[in-house]
Design brief:
With 269 residues, the chain is an alpha+beta fold. The chain has a domain of 126 residues. Strand 7 and strand 8 form a beta hairpin. About 3% of the residues have low confidence. 22% of the residues are buried. The strands form 7 sheets. Strands 15-16-8-7-14-17 form a 6-stranded antiparallel beta sheet, with no helix packed on it. Strands 11-12-13 form a 3-stranded antiparallel beta sheet, with no helix packed on it. Strands 1-4 form a two-stranded antiparallel sheet.
């Protein structure tokens, strides 16, 4: 009976974590370059059930006690699940839709690749191309962190430039003069080695991995929207709530059975 309580409780804990994941996806439905997460669940190792008191011979067994015997060749009844757990929070890296903004400092990556960003914690990577030009004419993110070129240097845009453009290959030109080459990189293992760090930034799971030139193209005046589908997430949220409710009812049922066993059956025996 205690096992039933624990099994149902693990289901409630698992669905709570899934709810948090879905809520985070919905909260970032309008975040530029955001990639939705999915809670991957798995079962605990199931318990193998066997029949008891089967006639397996006259040999006295260790498990024999007052006529009860498990037996060495007891028939298998089946498996008993012992609950669920969240094995991983996986990120869906599918391409988000592209939205035209007309802002010449907005960039989107079509295909594979990440922009290189300099932070106080070291180099990080992002799909959020909503950039600005600061007072020192440097290309920066919304948080004031420097955008890097393909050599890891800050990108300076001449303040007097009348025309500013970026080619699909990431070449930045001002008044027809090449200024810099946007750092658009990927890593061996692709998106699977990228770990979310917050503020639309990623780090590499293995610091020993070296960046490679990405094959994606840069679109100017465009932003990549979040790949979160609000309707799908709401449907998942409803299904998640029902699963949580079923587990909570199982806890209540098990608690009621335990109450009867202790206060009624135990008192009369």
């Amino acid at each position: 009976m205690w096992r039933g309580l624990y099994t149902a409780a693990t289901g409630m804990i698992t669905e709570t974590r899934r709810t948090d994941t879905i809520a985070n996806n919905l909260a970032n439905a309008n975040t530029t370059g955001y990639k939705r997460d999915d809670a991957v669940t798995m079962d605990f190792e199931p318990m193998l059930l066997r029949r008891i008191n089967d006639k397996t011979g006259t040999q006295q067994e260790v498990t024999s006690f007052k006529g009860f015997s498990l037996g060495t060749n007891a028939s298998v009844v089946g498996e008993l699940g012992l609950g669920a757990q969240v094995a991983d929070i996986a990120t869906d890296h599918t391409q988000g839709s592209l939205q035209t903004t007309g802002n010449q400092l907005d960039f989107a990556v079509e295909g594979e690749g990440y922009f290189r960003i300099a932070t106080q914690r070291g180099e990080r990577y992002t799909r959020d191309g909503n950039f600005y030009r600061d007072a020192r004419s440097r290309l920066v993110t919304v948080n004031g962190e420097n955008v890097l070129d393909n050599r890891g240097r800050n990108i300076i845009i001449p303040p007097e430039a009348a025309e500013f453009s970026v080619s699909p290959e990431g070449r930045i030109t001002a008044d027809g003069v090449l200024v810099a080459q946007l750092g658009l990189v990927t890593f061996p293992g692709g998106d699977e080695v990228m770990v979310k760090e917050g503020n639309s930034l990623y780090r590499v799971a293995d610091p020993q991995l070296q960046p490679q030139q990405a094959t994606g193209s840069v679109q100017q005046g465009v932003l990549e929207r979040s790949n979160t589908e609000v309707v799908s997430e709401m449907v998942n949220l409803i299904a998640n709530y029902r699963a949580y409710e079923a587990s909570s009812k199982a806890v209540v049922t098990q608690d009621g059975m335990l109450d009867k066993a202790v206060n009624e059956v135990g008192r009369n025996s």
